[in-house]
Design brief:
6-stranded parallel sheet; two-stranded antiparallel sheet; alpha/beta
Length: 268
């Protein structure tokens, strides 16, 4: 098990750990009914914090940020000699957590996406993990919710008896959700993004050989070019440039913690 703590990557504090350490941390928090806001960030997720100082503050106040994507792992290994053997992919971590949750009787909750996706996701998870307890689910409302609606969402999750909540709202909305709901839910809240679609079977995951060489983003670009081309054509080169500056100590990223948000976004 590898857990080398949080490391500053372009001003965003990412945990340098492996799958075993990540899953153990999440499952332990679930048993203890302990607040834990979790996300898995690839290059795009890291860059949302780099380019937005308010969102950077939110990310830096999540409890666990997994190094999703090989370029994030490579950067941690280069900058801090962490010797991480693999990335910690959000969708894979979700399955590993569900496996442990099924074996240890920890009910899960699914929040986000569309009703049809949640239905397929729930069915597939229960087929894969027959002992898994899905305490409940709520689709995204695809808008900001009121403070009263937020209280209702929290209450529904509490009443379900869930010990872990998975959130699939897309980046960066799901990270905002985890930041804003974690204290009130007092359980692991894990933002997993496209994992809902992957495991529901509505979106295909990149072949493993592409993921291993850092080209998972290219596979997703081919699937959704109109939506994703600006993200990858702009952010990927900028990420490489900034990592180079950090590695050469030509830019100091240690003193950019971020700016606290003045109000809640209440994404639903």
């Amino acid at each position: 098990m590898i857990d080398r703590g949080k490391k500053n990557l372009l001003g965003v504090w990412v945990n340098a750990l492996d799958y075993e350490a990540a899953v153990k941390t999440i499952i332990t928090a679930a048993h203890e009914r302990k607040r834990m806001a979790v996300s898995a960030l690839a290059v795009h997720g890291v860059m949302t914090g780099v380019l937005d100082e308010i969102h950077r503050y939110r990310l830096n106040h999540l409890d666990l940020i997994l190094p999703d994507g090989q370029p994030v792992r490579w950067a941690l290994n280069l900058l801090y000699k962490t010797r991480l053997p693999d990335r910690v992919c959000g969708p894979t971590t979700m399955l590993l957590v569900c496996d442990h949750a099924a074996k240890e009787g920890l009910p899960i909750y699914l929040y986000g996406s569309k009703p049809s996706v949640l239905e397929d996701l729930s069915r597939n998870l229960c087929t894969h993990f027959p002992k898994l307890i899905i305490a409940g689910s709520q689709p995204s409302r695809f808008r900001q919710v009121s403070s009263e609606e937020k209280k209702e969402i929290v209450e529904q999750i509490h009443q379900s008896g869930a010990a872990i909540t998975f959130v699939g709202l897309g980046c960066p909305r799901q990270e905002v959700w985890a930041y804003e709901y974690a204290d009130e839910l007092s359980m692991p809240v894990m933002a997993v993004g496209a994992a809902f679609d992957f495991h529901a079977g509505t979106l295909s995951k990149a072949p493993e050989f592409l993921s291993q060489i850092g080209l998972e983003w290219f596979y997703r670009l081919l699937q959704e070019p109109k939506r994703l081309w600006k993200r990858y054509m702009f952010l990927n080169p900028l990420y490489i440039w900034l990592c180079t500056l950090q590695a050469l100590k030509l830019r100091d990223f240690e003193r950019i913690e971020g700016t606290p948000p003045a109000q809640e976004m209440r994404y639903g």
